[in-house]
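testing teh design pipeline on a random one, pls ignore if ur not involved
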């Protein structure tokens, strides 16, 4: 499947969700989809025994690269509770950026997957900022609160 096709499909589905359900319910969809995806991948990626949040996020980032969702991915701690998630040219960046420009909730597929991994470890992540760079890179800043269980 081409990245272009996936970008168009994901844009269409999330635009329809925004239009039919509104912003708040679309956020619920985005976050729940990440939880469902995490449930499907946890065992396959060997994540169930990893307690360190940065290690589990790095493992997920590596998988996202391996499957071709992004050219590169990195999650790094910026300060105590702030993290930065860098996605090099995710296949859905065009549609995601368009949804944001239209004032709609973008899919945040990989972000919600990572948030679900953190939630499983007793942490809550809050998206503070998303920037789209001219080279197709998307950069998010998160605040992570709570303590690992």
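output:
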């Amino acid at each position: 499947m081409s990245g272009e096709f996936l970008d168009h499909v994901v844009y269409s589905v999330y635009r329809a969700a925004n239009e039919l359900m509104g912003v708040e319910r679309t956020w619920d969809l985005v976050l729940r989809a990440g939880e469902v995806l995490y449930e499907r991948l946890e065992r396959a990626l060997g994540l169930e025994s990893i307690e360190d949040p940065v290690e589990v996020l790095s493992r997920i980032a590596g998988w996202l690269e391996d499957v071709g969702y992004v050219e590169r991915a990195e999650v790094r701690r910026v300060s105590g509770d702030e993290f930065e998630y860098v996605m090099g040219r995710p296949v859905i960046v065009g549609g995601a950026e368009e949804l944001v420009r239209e004032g709609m909730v973008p899919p945040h597929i990989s972000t919600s997957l990572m948030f679900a991994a953190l939630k499983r470890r007793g942490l809550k992540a809050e998206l503070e900022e998303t920037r789209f760079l001219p080279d197709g890179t998307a950069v998010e800043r998160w605040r992570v609160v709570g303590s690992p269980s």
